[in-house]
Each structure stands twice: as C-alpha cells, then as structure tokens.
Q: What sequence folds into this?
C-alpha cells in the first residue's frame, strides 16, 4: 500500500487522455492506434510515477510541515530514501523504453519533454505562482500530444488550447483548496509554494475565468473541427457537451469555494457521484451523436 501511494498509481487514470485523440481523430477503429496508445500509457505512467518519487524526495522537508503530506511514505519514513532512488531510476528506464516502442523518437520526445518539465517543476518552478499552474496544465496537455503521436492523427490546435484552459482552471482549484486550508489553520504561506493566504481571491478569480474560457474554446472546437469531421451522424447532439462541462466546472468551483474539495480536483471527480453522472452524460452524448 505504501508503494502504491508513493508511486501514485491512482494518478495513472489521468493518462487515459492519451486515448482521446484516437477517438476524436477517427482512429478508434484502428488496432495499431490502441496498441501504440497502450504502450504510451504504460510508458508515461512509469515515468510519471518515477517523477512523483523524485518530487517527494526533493520535498521531504516541506512535506513534513504540511498538514496532509507529512503522512506520505517517504516523509513519514515508512519507505527508505535509498529504495525510492532505486525505484525511480528503474521506472525512468522502463518508461522511456516503452515510449520508444510506442512510436519511436516522436513518442520518446513527448515523454522526454514531460520528464524534463516535471523535474523542472519539482526542483524549482513549483515555487513560482501562476507559472506552476501553467506547467501543471502543460503536463496534462502533453498527455494529449502523446495520444496524437501514438494514434498518428491530425493535430488539433483547438483541443490543445482547450486542454490548457481546462487544466489551468483545475490547477488553480487545487491551489485555492490548499490556501483555504492554510487559512483555516492560521497559516500565512504554503510550504514549498509561492502562494500566501492573501492570494485566495486572485487564485479564485483566475480559476473561474479560465473555466469560462475552457467552455468557450470547446464551443469553438465543435464549430471549427468536430462538426466537419464526418465522424458524427448527428453532430448537433454535441451541443450538450459545453453545457455539461459548464455544470461540472461550476460544481468544482462551488465546492472549492466552500473548502470541501479534495486537493486534486481530478481525483475528486472520480469519487464524486455528480461528477461521474455528468461524465456519463458526456459519453452518452458523444455515442448518440456518432450512432443516431
């Protein structure tokens, strides 16, 4: 259990974004796209887990001062530091090898960019307000980029911009949750981060604004790309997607403002019945648009 927590295996669900370009790009019928996507999925998962370990080892002092992170396996001392160093090294080698198998230099380049950006974030950039959020959003977007490479579909600028706005908003929600809990405990500054308790209104404003921008970009994506692909028999049914997205983001920010959101909005959504129901409606809408 400690190793599962240290490697953040539950975070691998985020790598499901790798398969989105294959579905949206019309390659969902291709076995090759799914095989290469699976190789990319596991390759990126291993690299991401290795970087989580590296991040925890770099953050030992700050984690031990954090209200929740002090219980992490390395911060609490339940897993030796030497074991973490060894496992992270093996994970990086295996992960990069699978990326190479997925789609050669192209996939290896995307995973390598993910690795470099993650290490930069862990070692320094996470302490710079706003930039840290941009990097987190970029890491999510790189998952989509890897999916494009693995499935060999056409790049969609609208999809990548949508990803940046959406995950920037969710990253700000994560930071606001941490800030509100900091304020509740009487603290002034987040350990290991560049945010202060007084930053809460700014962080909330940025996050809500970016969520509105994400909905707008989704509308533009539907108009400029989705409706013209020929993949959907009744593309008009896709108009439900911006509404469902707006409802979900509204719920995220409502709960965030109340201080009851989990530290990670994505993981929270996987446990939240309302979020799962909205996700189910999204899937039904896409299937209906494709089949009816």
A:
């Amino acid at each position: 259990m400690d190793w599962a927590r240290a490697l953040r295996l539950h975070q691998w669900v985020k790598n499901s974004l790798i398969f989105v370009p294959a579905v949206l790009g019309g390659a969902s019928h291709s076995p090759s796209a799914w095989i290469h996507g699976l190789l990319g999925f596991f390759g990126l998962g291993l690299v991401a887990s290795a970087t989580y370990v590296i991040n925890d080892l770099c953050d030992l002092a700050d984690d031990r001062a954090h209200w929740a992170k002090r219980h992490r396996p390395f911060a609490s001392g339940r897993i030796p530091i030497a074991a973490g160093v060894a496992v992270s090294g093996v994970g990086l080698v295996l992960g990069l090898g699978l990326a190479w198998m997925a789609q050669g230099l192209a996939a290896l380049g995307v995973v390598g960019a993910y690795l470099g950006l993650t290490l930069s974030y862990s070692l320094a950039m996470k302490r710079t307000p706003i930039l840290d959020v941009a990097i987190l959003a970029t890491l999510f977007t790189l998952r989509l980029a890897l999916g494009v490479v693995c499935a060999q579909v056409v790049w969609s600028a609208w999809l990548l911009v949508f990803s940046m706005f959406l995950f920037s908003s969710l990253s700000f929600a994560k930071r606001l949750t941490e800030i509100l809990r900091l304020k509740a405990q009487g603290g002034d500054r987040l350990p290991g981060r560049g945010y202060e308790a007084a930053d809460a209104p700014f962080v909330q404003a940025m996050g809500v604004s970016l969520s509105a921008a994400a909905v707008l970009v989704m509308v533009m994506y539907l108009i400029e790309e989705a409706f013209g692909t020929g993949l959907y028999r009744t593309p008009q049914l896709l108009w439900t997607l911006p509404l469902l997205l707006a409802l979900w983001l509204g719920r995220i920010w409502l709960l965030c403002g109340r201080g009851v959101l989990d530290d990670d909005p994505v993981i929270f959504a996987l446990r939240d019945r309302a979020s799962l129901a909205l996700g189910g409606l999204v899937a039904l809408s896409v299937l209906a648009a494709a089949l009816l």
About this structure: The first helix runs from residue 2 to 6. The chain has a mean pLDDT of 86. The chain has two domains: 1-155, 156-292. The CA atoms of residues 179 and 199 lie 8 Å apart.
